[in-house]
């Protein structure tokens, strides 16, 4: 039995330690493959993104680790790339030139406030509320709909290897109940997005960060979304979105057992340079 994880942040962005700490811990925990996915640079102020001039060092560092761990642990060079229409995405020439092993496409930024500050869906709750008021006149349905529209656009136009934390916007509900996941309009938005993902053939991640950070009671996306995803035949990968080496397999047993209960028999992993389905049980993947 072994694990894989392709969503992780090091001190090149907002993670806590240099990449080698994560590789060492991954080997200790019997991982077969591990991927680095620092937040890609964006052309505006972003405190948790990698700086553009760090990219070369990031590549060199991971290349060095790949050589050091060869034959023991497969390591992959990736980025979590923000999709912001017309501004940033996997198709951006800067990202294309990096020849990444894989990419995670995520939507964190939807619209901007009057002073130009980008509105973050998973940032501080007070900033979320400020943007909700300033940009959307406190209309949560309009805000959430725009978030999912942006994800659909990313799936169609950007085609990252993996769709990041699909319903992460729900984390804001833990501070103020803003929308109900059972509302018809919300479920329709999610379902429309899942249909777009299913048609694209892209892999969707099951992200456990909300669980071990206690920001959500379920994975991103949660159970009912994964049930629909399973019915639509959407392939999934399990990732922890680790910002600390101790988080690299956080709540993986729970996530894999949930996927098994839903009916998934395979998860997708990047092995020998290609994404492929592998069998699993709650103790890890069978490769
Ligand atoms: Zn993210
Ligand atoms: Zn992340």
TrEMBL record:
What are the entry keywords?
A: Amino-acid biosynthesis, Histidine biosynthesis, Hydrolase
Q: Tell me a GO cellular component.
A: cytoplasm
Write one Gene Ontology MF term: histidinol-phosphatase activity
List the pathway annotation: Amino-acid biosynthesis; L-histidine biosynthesis; L-histidine from 5-phospho-alpha-D-ribose 1-diphosphate: step 8/9
Q: Which residues form the PHP domain?
A: 6-208
Keyword Manganese belongs to the record: no
EC numbers, comma separated: 3.1.3.15
BP GO terms, sorted: L-histidine biosynthetic process
Q: Name one Pfam family in it.
A: PHP
Specify the superkingdom.
Answer: Bacteria
**Statement: the UniProt record of this protein carries the keyword Amino-acid biosynthesis:** yes
Instruction: Supply the Gene3D superfamilies for this chain.
Output: Metal-dependent hydrolases
Known catalytic reactions: L-histidinol phosphate + H2O = L-histidinol + phosphate
Query: What is the enzyme's main class?
Result: hydrolase
What does the sequence similarity comment in the record state about its family?
Belongs to the PHP hydrolase family. HisK subfamily.
Name the PANTHER family on file.
HISTIDINOL PHOSPHATASE-RELATED, HISTIDINOL-PHOSPHATASE
The name this protein carries in UniProt is Histidinol-phosphatase
Q: Which organism is it from?
A: Xanthocytophaga agilis
